[in-house]
């Protein structure tokens, strides 16, 4: 492959990644969800004890997986928290996603 084309593809992919990292709005607390602890309580899966690790409401909605990893959350917890943060941002009601148990 021609080196110039390879460089162009890298620059393009970098610009696409950077444009995807647009700051999303932080939703205001509403209803029974008043703070980080209550949010974690309502999404279930024993996430409530993690409230002491997350500094604020704004931080919870602006952190990415790398920031959550630095707080000591395991991959499953990070994925679940980010999933529900995005759903809450979109206006969906909080509910527990039942774990189907261990895979065989």
UniProtKB/TrEMBL annotation:
The UniProt record lists the keyword Mitochondrion:
yes
Pfam families named in the record: SAM_Ribosomal_mS41 (PF09597)
Which GO terms of the cellular component aspect does the record hold?
mitochondrion
* Location of the Small ribosomal subunit protein mS41 SAM domain: 36-91
Q: Which domain of life is it from?
A: Eukaryota
* Keyword list, A-Z: Mitochondrion
Its localization reads:
Mitochondrion
Give the family, as the similarity comment puts it.
Belongs to the mitochondrion-specific ribosomal protein mS41 family.
Q: What is this protein called?
A: Small ribosomal subunit protein mS41
Q: What is the lineage of its organism?
A: Eukaryota, Fungi, Fungi incertae sedis, Blastocladiomycota, Blastocladiomycetes
